[in-house]
Design a protein that fits this description.
The complex is a heterodimer of chains A (242) and B (287). Helices cover 34% and strands 26% of the residues of chain A. With 242 residues, chain A is of the alpha/beta class. Chain A has a single domain (3-239), classed as Rossmann fold (3-Layer(aba) Sandwich), CATH 3.40.50.300. Chain A is globular and about 50 Å long. Helix content of chain B is 81%, strand content 0%. In chain B, helix 1 runs antiparallel to helix 2. Chain A binds chain B through residues 14-15, 49, 52-56, 70-72, 74-75, 77, 79, 81, 83-87, 89, 94, 98, 101-103, 107, 109, and chain B through 1, 4, 7-8, 11-12, 15, 84-88, 90-95, 192, 282-287.
Chain lengths: 242, 287
């Protein structure tokens, strides 16, 4: 179980026309912060959904810590989708309790506590988010913060964050990145999917570039800077120039 | 984890049902009171109009509860598991079996509760409207006891056995119907376009197949409510194309035929359950 995520000849097609992922091979180590980079429609969200079992591969295999996506992998994967995914009639405190009920108790798959409710409440208090407020009454930015707080309060082995900074202002982006960096378990891997590379570049260990459903490059960030003589953002602009 | 899923499923659905139950209970009391005043205000046109309006509202609330039971069954499955909330539900550390069972059990409980609330509310309405101290004075509880005793002796224990079977078979029928809806939703999920049409056609198609098998075996006769005059449901009556049930009833007795009907209904429900589970496990695509 040396790899947290492996893909072998993984493909995903939507219908007959659209190929979202085309025969990709990828493996990610534990304890890394990985940028999943690529323009819109390059297959980033598809790959993350496949890892969560929300989509089924058309061909190939995807494994999380050596396991096919299922209840066992869901114990160790923390997912932040790029859409509103929580029931908006629920109060913030009810959502915290819900996460505690489902992830917060030790089970066969994990001997540790999978959700830290105290940490979540502390982060919410720091953000001045009323725990009694219903999710639907919160602003877009606050809603995203609640979702992020819930995802980052999990003690997971793999964090899959799909566009965590896509819909928020630059000040909130800093907060979100700070939250990610200061809250993930150090032996865990964080995968951040985004096309806002400049913002996340300082925190990345490695970058996976997706282009037209294929892996264009999977390199250490330092290696890109040294070899190409440019930042990851500049390299991205070079590679994906229209 | 099933316990947790049930907890949040009831939490999500109770607000809708409790509101309508409360409205029905209040209307039952109000209508009961108006019935009681009927003689005194029989000549008042406005009173009669009010009574008609209240009656229409009352029937509307009962219909709303019935519609809610069906719509909520479909909606909770589709929106919660196949819509945006599916991102949460399918990333919880639970199995597909637990997800389907939580939806099924909650829907069944609400359908049964709605029926019970309906019966209680109508009883309350009639009681308030008809029963008063005078009427209650003429009622002898001993007579009720005698009537009950007579019924029990006349019908015998077979009646109660048949009642238990009727309840079990109809519960299985309810579960089978709900699971058929779920299977239709999962089939519809496989289509990119015309999803709703695909779901409706799948539901109709599966029901036609089920009914044909039902007719062939004669199991549909036994699922109806027990006819007390025959003490036990008469499965052979009018079931010309029912050799299996007829044979079982003749060879092993009515109890065996009821058991066969129950097992058959559970088997149909299990087929729908397995189909739903398989599609959810292997063909889920939340795009």
């Amino acid at each position: 179980m040396s790899k947290v995520l492996t893909c072998e000849h993984l493909s995903k097609t939507y219908g007959k026309e659209k190929t979202a992922l085309d025969n990709i091979d990828l493996s990610l180590d534990f304890g890394r912060i990985v940028g999943l980079l690529g323009p819109n429609g390059s297959g980033k969200t598809t790959l993350i959904k496949l890892a969560n079992g929300l989509l089924q591969p058309s061909a190939g295999v995807l494994k999380i810590a050596g396991m096919t996506p299922g209840p066992e992998t869901k114990e160790i994967v923390s997912y932040l989708p790029d859409a509103d995914w929580l029931p908006d009639w629920m109060r913030v405190e009810e959502l915290v309790n819900m996460f505690r009920d489902f992830y917060g108790t030790p089970s066969e798959a994990k001997a540790y506590i999978g959700f830290d409710a105290a940490k979540a409440n502390e982060m919410l208090a720091r953000l001045n988010i009323d725990p009694k407020a219903r999710l639907k009454t919160l602003s877009k930015g606050n809603k995203e913060k609640v979702q992020l707080v819930l995802a980052m309060s999990r003690a997971a082995k793999l964090y899959l964050l799909d566009e965590p900074i896509g819909g928020v202002d630059p000040a909130a982006r800093d907060y979100i990145l700070n939250t990610i960096i200061s809250n993930y378990s150090k032996d865990a891997t964080v995968v951040i999917s985004t096309h806002l590379i400049e913002d996340i570049e300082p925190v990345l260990d490695e970058a996976v570039f997706l282009k037209d459903g294929k892996i264009f490059a999977h390199r250490a960030v330092d290696d890109i800077r040294e070899t190409e003589g440019m930042s990851v953002d500049a390299y991205f602009r070079e590679v994906f120039k229209c | 984890m099933l316990k947790q899923l049930l907890k949040y499923e009831f939490k999500a659905t109770k607000r809708l049902y409790f509101g309508l139950y409360l409205a029905l209970a209040l209307l039952s009391v109000v209508l009961g009171v108006t019935f009681r005043q009927e003689h005194a205000l029989a000549h008042s046109t406005s009173f009669q109009n009010l009574q008609v309006i209240l009656m229409i509202v009352y029937v509307s609330v009962i219909l709303a509860i019935a519609v809610l039971c069906f719509v909520n069954t479909v909606q909770r499955f589709c929106r919660n598991l196949l819509g945006r909330e599916g991102y949460l539900m399918h990333t919880l550390p639970v199995t597909e079996t637990q997800l389907i069972l939580s939806k099924l059990l909650t829907s069944m409980v609400w359908v049964l509760c709605s029926g019970l609330v309906g019966v209680v509310c109508i009883t309350v309405m009639v009681s308030i409207g008809v029963l008063d101290a005078e009427v209650l004075g003429t009622l002898s509880w001993d007579r009720w006891k005698q009537l009950w005793q007579m019924l029990y002796e006349e019908l015998g224990p077979e009646f109660w056995v048949a009642m238990v079977w009727t309840i079990l078979i109809n519960l299985a029928r309810l579960a089978s119907l709900i699971l058929c809806v779920y299977a239709a939703c999962m089939i519809a999920h496989q289509f990119k376009k015309q999803t709703m049409v695909a779901g409706i056609l799948a539901f109709i198609g599966m029901n036609i197949v089920e009914n044909q098998i039902d007719k062939l075996l004669g199991t549909n006769d036994a699922a109806l409510f027990v006819d007390v005059t025959y003490k036990l449901v008469d499965v052979s009556n009018g079931s010309e194309g029912a050799p299996v049930m007829h044979y079982i009833a003749a060879a092993f007795g009515q109890g065996a035929s009821c058991l066969f009907c129950f097992v058959f209904t559970v088997a149909i429900a299990a087929v729908y359950f397995c189909l739903t589970r398989w599609l959810m496990k292997h063909k889920l695509n939340l795009e």
